[in-house]
Amino acid sequence: MTSTGNLCEIFSGIQGEGLYAGCRQVFIRLYGCNLACRYCDTGYAHNAADTYRVERSSGRRNFALGANPASAQDVVSAATMLFAGKGAHHSISITGGEPLFQHKFVREICMGLKAGGQTTFLETNGTLLGELEQVIDYVDIISMDIKLPSVTGAESLLPLHREFLKAARQRKAYVKTVVAQGTTDRELLDVLEVMESIAPSIPLVIQPATPVGGVLAPKAEQLLLWQEMCMARLSDVRVIPQCHKIMGQM
Ligand code: SF4
């Protein structure tokens, strides 16, 4: 392995979002992102630092520091060590930031993890198709976002999401979309049109926004109506908030 990249942290924790919420995972968080969502809660992972932190024993929050750029080999070794430590881990999550922002680094990390028999889980904003194609052979599960303008504060990314989903469906995948009080039915209908035409059996997780950056959490009635609207067109639609924040997890 020759690739190096900018790493933020490696630790063992409880997945707090999406279809696998509640599962124990080892998290490999990389620096950098191609977007600037208004509600982003991982702003600390946007600009690379000179060092990264790595947990020394699984879930004990006893971090040591390493120097960036980190080698893919070191990342694989650290994640594998934590995976084998305390707790029955489900998989190893590659997250960010946007991990595909450093796709060559991610490719080598995932290759190394797969060579060791690990299950790899990619958490992505679902916009970088060319980069996904470079790593998809080494990824088992894809958690992809569909970003709505009402929460990102930016233009629609649906054309990018549409093409990304066509590739992601080759793997075990699900879509997560964050909704806020200002989300419109039209935005969700557009998501449904894309999912129904490409992958109607892929689960959709509607994630109520945690209030931040002026984004307001949706009302209870909105969530009930949106789930009904989505269930009329897709086979598996769940409403799951950011559980790790409730649990005080990283
Ligand atoms: S894609 Fe994710 S990491 Fe990037 S700005 Fe949006 S929420 Fe933050």
How would you describe this structure to a colleague?
There is one protein chain. The protein is α/β, with parallel strands linked by helices. It contains eight helices and twelve strands. The strands form two sheets. A ten-stranded mixed sheet has the order 5-4-2-3-7-8-9-10-11-12, covered by helices on one side. Strand 11, helix 7 and strand 12 (237-239) form a beta-alpha-beta unit. Helix 1 (72-84) crosses helix 2. The radius of gyration is 17 Å and the shape is globular. The structure holds iron/sulfur cluster. Iron/sulfur cluster binds at residues 33, 35-37, 40, 42, 96-98, 125.
> What fraction strand?
15-25%
CATH superfamily of the domain at 4-175: Aldolase class I
Q: How many beta-strand elements?
A: 12
Query: In which range does the helix fraction lie?
Result: 25-40%
Low-confidence stretches: none
Rounded mean pLDDT score: 96
Order of helices and strands: EEEEEEHEHEHEHHEHEHEH
Largest sheet: 10 strands, mixed
Which structural category fits the helices and strands?
alpha/beta
Total helical elements? 8
Give a list of the ligands.
iron/sulfur cluster
Distance between the termini: 29 Å
Q: Based on the coordinates given, report the CATH architecture of the domain at 4-175.
A: Alpha-Beta Barrel
CATH class of the domain at 4-175: Alpha Beta
Q: Rg to the nearest angstrom?
A: 17 Å
Shape: globular
Q: Looking at the chains present, what oligomeric state does this protein adopt?
A: single chain
Write out the strand line-up for the largest beta sheet, numbering strands in chain order: 5-4-2-3-7-8-9-10-11-12
